[in-house]
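Sequence, please.
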């Protein structure tokens, strides 16, 4: 009965081995893993782990996938397994406000600039798949370029890096009290172990400055930008 309650708990619960491989995940954690790469969760686990055997609960304010977290507990009793429990807030995410640095611009021009810059430093083949129907919209240009450069630099050892730009159907973000459609930039690389190739907190820091939602999957990083036309 106890195991059943853990499985149906509405808060994600996972355990990892010493290499970051998932040993166990309950139903809610499996849903979260559709949105967030295991590396992100493992990095979070190590960041908040107690310094010695036992458990530690930390109160945080952290966005993760579609979740707003208010706390997490990390615990371990040996060097071979570590557990993470995330506590979801029942409060809605704080509404985003459009940055005063946002400017009306062409997204494809920004991507082309970042790709051209990184082509000179990489042997990777860069492929581009753009939806030409996407109009100019408001973007925090400098911070988006920093985010793109960091991602492309992290993957410059791969043979192929593909950039796809598309409308993200059925999903919205609220900015300035309005529901905004999302434009998704998918940066796809060869499906290899991405452990230690980038720092997830650095990506999230850049993303927070451009009102973007980040999704990290085994072979893709997605940057979801609000489509703001006025």
């Amino acid at each position: 009965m106890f195991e059943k309650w853990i499985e149906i708990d509405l808060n994600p619960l996972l355990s990892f081995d010493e290499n970051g491989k998932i040993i166990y995940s309950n139903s809610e954690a499996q849903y979260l893993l559709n949105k967030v790469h295991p590396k992100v969760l493992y990095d979070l686990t190590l960041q908040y782990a107690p310094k010695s055997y036992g458990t530690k609960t930390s109160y945080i304010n952290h966005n993760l996938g579609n979740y707003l977290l208010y706390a997490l507990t990390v615990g371990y009793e040996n060097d071979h397994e570590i557990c993470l429990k995330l506590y979801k807030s029942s409060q809605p995410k704080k509404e985003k406000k459009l940055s005063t640095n946002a400017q009306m611009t062409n997204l494809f021009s920004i991507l082309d600039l970042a790709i051209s810059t990184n082509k000179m430093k990489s042997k990777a083949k860069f492929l581009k798949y753009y939806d030409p129907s996407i109009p100019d919209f408001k973007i925090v240009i400098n911070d988006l370029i920093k985010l793109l450069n960091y991602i492309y630099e992290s993957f410059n050892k791969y043979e192929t890096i593909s950039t796809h730009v598309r409308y993200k159907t059925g999903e919205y973000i609220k900015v300035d009290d309005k529901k905004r459609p999302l434009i998704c930039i998918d940066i796809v690389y060869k499906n290899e172990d991405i452990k230690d190739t980038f720092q997830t907190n650095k990506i999230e820091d850049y993303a927070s400055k451009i009102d973007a939602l980040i999704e990290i999957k085994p072979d893709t990083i997605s940057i979801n930008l609000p489509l703001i036309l006025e």
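Helices lie at 2-8, 27-33, 38-47, 107-119, 141-154, 200-208.
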